[in-house]
Amino acid sequence: MQAEPAHDIAHLGHVEILTDRPEESLDFFTRVYGLSESGREGDSVYLRAFDDYEYHSLKLTAAKTTGMRHAAYRAASPDALQRRVNAIEALGAGIGWSDGDAGHGPTYQFHDPDGHVFEIYYETRRYEPPPEERPALKNQAQRTPNRAIAPRRLDHINLLAVDVDAIRDFFPKALGSRVTEMIQLDDGTLGGCWFTCNNKSYDVAYTRGATGTRGRFHHVTYAVDQREQILRAADVFLENGVHIETGPHKHAIQQTFFLYVWEPAGNRVELANAGAWLILAPDWEPVVWTLEERKKGQAWGLKTIESFHTHGTPPAGG
Amino acid sequence: MQAEPAHDIAHLGHVEILTDRPEESLDFFTRVYGLSESGREGDSVYLRAFDDYEYHSLKLTAAKTTGMRHAAYRAASPDALQRRVNAIEALGAGIGWSDGDAGHGPTYQFHDPDGHVFEIYYETRRYEPPPEERPALKNQAQRTPNRAIAPRRLDHINLLAVDVDAIRDFFPKALGSRVTEMIQLDDGTLGGCWFTCNNKSYDVAYTRGATGTRGRFHHVTYAVDQREQILRAADVFLENGVHIETGPHKHAIQQTFFLYVWEPAGNRVELANAGAWLILAPDWEPVVWTLEERKKGQAWGLKTIESFHTHGTPPAGG
Amino acid sequence: MQAEPAHDIAHLGHVEILTDRPEESLDFFTRVYGLSESGREGDSVYLRAFDDYEYHSLKLTAAKTTGMRHAAYRAASPDALQRRVNAIEALGAGIGWSDGDAGHGPTYQFHDPDGHVFEIYYETRRYEPPPEERPALKNQAQRTPNRAIAPRRLDHINLLAVDVDAIRDFFPKALGSRVTEMIQLDDGTLGGCWFTCNNKSYDVAYTRGATGTRGRFHHVTYAVDQREQILRAADVFLENGVHIETGPHKHAIQQTFFLYVWEPAGNRVELANAGAWLILAPDWEPVVWTLEERKKGQAWGLKTIESFHTHGTPPAGG
Amino acid sequence: MQAEPAHDIAHLGHVEILTDRPEESLDFFTRVYGLSESGREGDSVYLRAFDDYEYHSLKLTAAKTTGMRHAAYRAASPDALQRRVNAIEALGAGIGWSDGDAGHGPTYQFHDPDGHVFEIYYETRRYEPPPEERPALKNQAQRTPNRAIAPRRLDHINLLAVDVDAIRDFFPKALGSRVTEMIQLDDGTLGGCWFTCNNKSYDVAYTRGATGTRGRFHHVTYAVDQREQILRAADVFLENGVHIETGPHKHAIQQTFFLYVWEPAGNRVELANAGAWLILAPDWEPVVWTLEERKKGQAWGLKTIESFHTHGTPPAGG
Question: Nearest C-alpha of chain C: how many angstroms from B228?
Answer without folding.
Answer: 6
